[in-house]
Recover the amino acids of this structure.
């Protein structure tokens, strides 16, 4: 059977999100997650995962949310006046203007990996918040760190990022533009690092959806995916005040969790010839 890795991003961003991911893992569908090790609830997330051995844990490298692990004066280009990371739009603007230090990014990413390893986690893969690691220069840094810390899997794909937009979805131009740019960079990265790291055959996920339409989107996605190993990026969880203070992506999370912990999800995967898996299985 084909392997479906449903990876839950944002593990540790809040208590509610972490608990939702654990519930989905215990249900048996979401067997992979990515930890935001700089966030205040990261250590609690690790504790929740102790009794969930089926859950593979990677690192959601993060320089656009929360506070850095580095001392503020060592990551000056990455933080605002409040000491927190710049929001994505500000980060991308400064990146385009050449105002972001790649040395500082590597320093912060390295600390996030080290902290996760110090918690005793067997890191299964690397990806990043807002897919920042697809950007030129930053992708090279992540590849260097993956080599240094012996991580084989990096988010990307052998055959490209799948289109996120179907008739069931609302149109979100900023996210469409972001996806278009990331797809171009993903193609370049696959060419440059073709034989150095493991990538899934296909990568898919959700950018925007009308309320009540997530299952329809999930079904359409699996119907179109024909790779032997595919990753579906998800954001399930219980919405809480901490999440709402950190991230604008809130409305769909509980709906994703409801669908991914339903018989509908398991039946759909089976219908299209998939079994649930994680990066540790390979």
């Amino acid at each position: 059977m084909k392997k479906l890795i449903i990876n839950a991003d944002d593990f540790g961003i809040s208590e509610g999100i972490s608990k939702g991911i654990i519930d989905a893992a215990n249900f048996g569908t979401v067997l992979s997650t990515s930890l935001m090790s700089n966030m205040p609830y990261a250590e609690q997330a690790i504790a929740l995962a102790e009794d969930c051995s089926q859950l593979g844990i990677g690192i959601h490298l993060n320089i656009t949310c929360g506070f850095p692990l580095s001392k503020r004066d060592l990551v000056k280009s990455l933080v605002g006046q409040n000491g927190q990371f710049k929001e994505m739009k500000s980060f991308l603007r400064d990146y385009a203007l050449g105002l972001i230090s790649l040395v500082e990014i590597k320093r912060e990413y390295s600390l996030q990996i080290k902290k996760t390893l110090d918690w005793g986690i067997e890191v299964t893969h690397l990806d990043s918040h807002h897919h920042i690691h697809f950007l030129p220069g930053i992708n090279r840094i992540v590849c260097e760190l993956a080599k240094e810390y012996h991580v084989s899997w990096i988010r990307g794909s052998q055959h490209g990022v799948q289109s996120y937009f179907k008739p069931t979805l609302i149109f979100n131009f900023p996210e469409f533009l972001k996806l278009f740019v990331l797809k171009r960079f993903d193609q370049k990265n696959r060419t440059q690092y073709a034989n150095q790291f493991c990538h899934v055959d296909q990568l898919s996920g959700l950018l925007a959806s009308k309320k009540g339409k997530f299952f329809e989107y999930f079904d359409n996605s699996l119907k179109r995916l024909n790779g032997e190993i595919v990753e579906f990026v998800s954001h399930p969880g219980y919405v809480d005040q901490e999440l709402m203070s950190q991230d604008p992506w809130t409305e769909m999370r509980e709906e994703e969790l409801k669908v991914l912990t339903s018989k509908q999800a398991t039946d759909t995967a089976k219908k299209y010839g998939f079994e649930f898996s994680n990066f540790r299985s390979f």
